[in-house]
Design brief:
Shape of chain B: globular
Number of helices of chain A: 8
Radius of gyration of chain B: 20 Å
Structural class of chain B: alpha/beta
Order of helices and strands of chain B: HEHEHEHEHEHEHEHHHEH
Number of helices of chain B: 11
Number of strands of chain A: 9
Largest sheet of chain A: 4 strands, parallel
Distance between the termini of chain B: 24 Å
Largest interface: A-B, 30 and 35 residues
Radius of gyration of chain A: 22 Å
Helix content of chain A: 25-40%
Order of helices and strands of chain A: EHEHHEHEHEEEHEEHH
Distance between the termini of chain A: 34 Å
Largest sheet of chain B: 8 strands, parallel, barrel
Number of strands of chain B: 8
Strand content of chain A: 15-25%
Strand order of the largest sheet of chain B: 1-2-3-4-5-6-7-8
Oligomer: heterodimer
Helix content of chain B: 25-40%
Chain lengths: ~230, ~325
């Protein structure tokens, strides 16, 4: 899932400075599951904003709504009727959701209430950890299912570096060394000798470095919409 | 290793890959002594020249660090050029943290154009340790891939992309780092083997204090025959104080400092008034240098150790007494 975290309240208040009536839009998918931007968090943020602005004698009207997914046009279309009544939208979606709202409603200011963190999942109650950077060419098949791109601070492809100690990364003893994990896993799988192969330099053109990425599936495209 | 081409200018050098002083000494079977000079946090060339003067005649080549511990300093290549001008052979360092493959190759061409012939290929300390913790790190390629890239530039005259380098590639003696003390311990000789396969000609290790651990590592390395394919220079460095010894023992990831050395540093200042800082420092420094000399003498006896790499960062004056005390002076000369 995409893991996000709410911005500090002051930061959201700053973003909404000058606005009088806003719509807080939650998202019912990833950010709801990680307790950052679902219906409940929308309610809490809206109350906090009302209170804070009220105390400052700058009352703010905040209406609340939550869509199933901010990153799909069909789900945000339901906002079209009412959006004109607000002078801004505060999105509790991830960065994708914020942008899809802004693209769909170009006349309305859309500001983020969340900081989008990473693709990952919960490792224990209240803890989420990164697992994928979307590099566009997955190498998990050769690293025992442990990703060195997202989990090694130096993105080593032929690791570990000299700072791996007691299974921890040198930059933070709370972070496991990805290459220790890879080594242990490949050992269990009986495939340690594969780690002796030198991984060639990665082709980063499939990653962020290649510019805006798109996935095009011709089998799913609608020919008519495509041609205009 | 594959595809060695004779260097222009003489059949005598035909077997050499780079023709650097360090390579020639090692090829002739001499026990090599390299050291490390820290470039200044300024553009003052005089600081570099003064540091060279301090170690003159003691080192076969000196590493010039590349933004070590992620703190901005004069560039390694620029420092290396200054060393060349002063008559001390540089080993430039190149980390994967600050440059992508384009910048690395272009810097390597530039370094070679200035007569630099040794390069140490490193991942680089993480930027969170340095003075720009908010910096973006690059890590386009890793140290293993860098070693291979430099080798292919040299031996196959190819850029990383496969294109031919007009007129032939730069001829570097290729160095790598090895940390026998990091985890997982059983992997460490294999990691060295991988660096050798990638093209490392010489290796400089992390500081050695735990000789027993290092001997076990080297025994495995010798078993694997790696010492015949790569020249291994064991890292040494003088301890400065009891506090430093303790800190390195307890706090530095990938370091092993046996208690005996911490105790010896503590004993060194026993009976000296705590307020007499100058006397304490002198006693500590003398003991630190003495321990280092003993380590060098022990390391010299270990099969597969081809030399030592003295890391006395910020304490260049320690280099001469260490090299002299270990009986490694004068440094051998090979024909230029």
């Amino acid at each position: 899932m995409i893991v996000a975290e709410q911005k500090p309240l002051d930061a959201v208040i700053d973003l909404l400075s000058g606005h009088r009536k806003v719509l807080a839009v939650g998202c019912g998918t990833c950010v709801a599951v990680c307790f950052a931007g679902g219906k409940k968090e929308v309610g809490m943020l809206a109350s906090a904003l009302r209170m804070a602005r009220g105390l400052d004698d700058q009352p703010l009207e905040v209406d609340e709504t939550t869509v199933q997914r901010q990153c799909e046009a069909e789900y945000i279309e339901s906002l079209a009727e009412k959006i004109g009544a607000y002078d801004a939208v505060v999105s509790l979606g991830c960065g994708v959701g914020v942008q899809f709202l802004a693209e769909r409603f170009p006349e309305t200011r859309v500001v983020p209430a969340l900081d989008t963190k990473f693709m990952g999942g919960p490792t224990e109650a209240g803890v989420w950890e990164e697992r994928c950077q979307g590099c566009g060419s997955c190498m998990l098949g050769s690293t025992g299912g442990v990703c060195p791109i997202s989990r090694c601070a130096k993105q080593l492809m032929n690791g570990p570096c000299g700072g791996s100690k007691d299974g921890h990364c040198e930059i933070d003893p709370g972070i496991p060394c990805a290459w220790q994990l890879i080594w242990e896993r490949m050992d269990k799988l009986g495939r340690l000798e594969e780690l002796m192969e030198i991984q060639a330099p990665k082709d980063w053109s499939t990653s962020r470095d290649g510019g805006l990425r798109r996935v095009v599936r011709d089998d799913l495209r609608l020919p008519k919409a495509d041609e205009d | 290793m594959a595809m060695q081409q004779p260097i222009e200018g003489g059949a005598r050098e035909g077997a050499l890959k780079s023709g650097s002083n360090l390579e020639k000494l090692l090829a002739a079977g001499h026990f090599a002594v390299t050291g490390e000079l820290e470039p200044p946090k300024s553009h003052d060339a005089e600081i570099v020249r003064k540091r060279v003067e301090i170690v003159a005649g003691c080192l076969d080549a000196a590493n010039i660090t590349d933004n070590q511990t992620a703190i901005v300093r004069m560039s390694s290549i620029a420092g290396g050029i200054l060393l060349t001008q002063c008559g001390l052979e540089p080993v430039i360092q190149m980390t994967c943290r600050d440059r992508n493959r384009l910048a690395m190759q272009s810097d390597l061409l530039g370094a070679a154009a200035h007569g630099i012939r040794n390069v140490l290929c490193l991942s680089g300390d993480h930027q969170s340790f340095g003075n720009h913790p908010g910096a973006k790190n690059v890590h386009d390629i890793d140290s293993m891939q860098l070693i291979r890239m430099v080798r292919e530039m040299r031996d196959e005259s190819r850029f990383q992309c496969g294109e031919e380098i007009p007129g032939g590639g730069p001829r570097f003696f290729i160095g790598a780092a090895a940390n026998p003390f990091a985890d997982p311990a059983e992997l460490r000789p294999y990691r060295l083997a991988k660096k050798v396969a990638a093209g490392a000609d010489f290796v400089q290790t992390q500081l050695v204090y735990d000789l027993d651990h290092f001997r076990r590592y080297m025994a495995r390395v010798v078993d694997m025959g790696l010492h015949e394919k790569v020249s291994i220079l064991a890292g040494v460095g003088p301890l400065k104080s009891t506090g430093m010894a303790r800190y390195m023992r307890d706090k530095v990831p990938g370091m092993m400092v046996p208690d005996v050395f911490v105790d010896r540093m503590a004993h060194a200042v026993e009976g000296i008034d705590k307020d007499d800082k100058a006397a304490r420092q002198e006693a500590w420094r003398a003991e630190g240098i003495q321990i280092c000399i003993e380590l060098v003498q022990e390391l010299k006896q270990i099969e597969g150790v081809a030399g030592v790499h003295i890391m006395a960062i910020g304490w260049e004056t320690a280099v001469r007494p260490i090299v002299e005390g270990a009986g490694l002076m004068p440094r051998p000369k090979v024909d230029a």
